[in-house]
Automatic annotation (TrEMBL):
This is Glucose 1-dehydrogenase. SUPFAM superfamilies: NAD(P)-binding Rossmann-fold domains. The keyword Oxidoreductase applies. Belongs to the short-chain dehydrogenases/reductases (SDR) family. Signal peptide: none annotated. GO terms for molecular function: glucose 1-dehydrogenase [NAD(P)+] activity. Its EC number is 1.1.1.47. Residues 8-186 form the Ketoreductase domain. Keywords: Oxidoreductase. One of its GO terms (biological process) is monocarboxylic acid metabolic process.
Length: 250
């Protein structure tokens, strides 16, 4: 199936590893020219080099998505190198879990800042380029946690905020042929998840509660991104796609 992504230019934030890295690879496999960007220089470089070694047209940029100057440099470098920007995947984000009464203010600010402010800054900077070319795709990586998880008030609030942001932006940008959608992954086996001290307990809980008899993998999310980025999804906007194996409630 042709997805219409050949020579499209895509930026995937937080793509040094995990879901972001797999999404960058999936887009590159469809012929897109991809900018890998992450705050971590080592993971950004490793993912960029791996994709280049496989013959893909990619570029790596170190950027902090909570800093306007970094985002402007990221988008400027993308347009200068590839001549445009068609697909933005706002993927950067991570949890710092604790019960609210024990949660440091810094952890609230960090988690909500990367997820929400990052999506705001990246979208605001990318949208004018999409408006000028009358074509664009913005895909925000939310989470099943938008429904609420104990110990994740910061993460759940930020991911729920992304859903509202998606719907609001879809109304603003539709007339420019720009679609804005969100994906809500469930439990996805990544390096970050496997590094958690309580990983085994979380994994076992998910397996018992999920209708599908397996955990998610990064490619499950990347494939959903491919569809929403494609020409096949040109009349879909303002939507939230759950990729959870069927699990919704706690």
């Amino acid at each position: 199936m042709k997805l219409g992504l050949e020579n499209k230019v895509a930026v995937v934030t937080g793509s040094g590893r995990g879901i972001g890295a797999e999404t960058a690879r999936a887009l590159a496999e469809e012929g897109a020219r991809v900018v890998v960007t992450d705050i971590n220089p080592e993971t950004m470089a490793a993912t960029t080099q791996a994709l280049k070694a496989d013959g893909f047209d990619v570029h790596g940029v170190v950027a902090d998505v909570t800093r306007a100057a970094d985002v402007e440099r990221l988008v400027g470098e993308t347009v200068e190198r590839f001549g445009g920007l068609h697909v933005l995947v706002n993927n950067a984000g991570f949890p710092k879990d604790n019960y609210l009464t024990k949660m440091p203010e810094a952890d609230w600010d960090l988690v909500t800042g990367v997820i929400l402010k990052g999506a705001y800054l990246c979208s605001k900077t990318a949208v004018p380029h999409m408006m000028a070319q009358k074509w664009g795709r913005i895909i925000n990586i939310s989470s099943r946690a938008h429904l609420g998880n104990p110990g994740q008030a910061n993460y759940s609030a930020a991911k729920a905020g992304l859903v509202g942001f998606t719907k609001a932006l879809s109304y603003e940008e539709g007339k420019f042929n720009i679609t804005v959608n969100a994906i809500a992954p469930g439990f996805v086996e990544t390096e970050l998840m496997r590094s958690l001290a309580n990983y085994d307990a979380i994994r076992d809980k998910w397996l018992k509660a999920t209708p599908m008899p397996r955990l998610g993998v990064p490619r499950d999310i990347a494939d959903a991104v491919l569809f929403l980025a494609s020409e096949r999804a040109g009349f879909i906007t303002g939507e939230l796609l759950h990729v959870t194996g069927g699990r919704y409630s706690n």
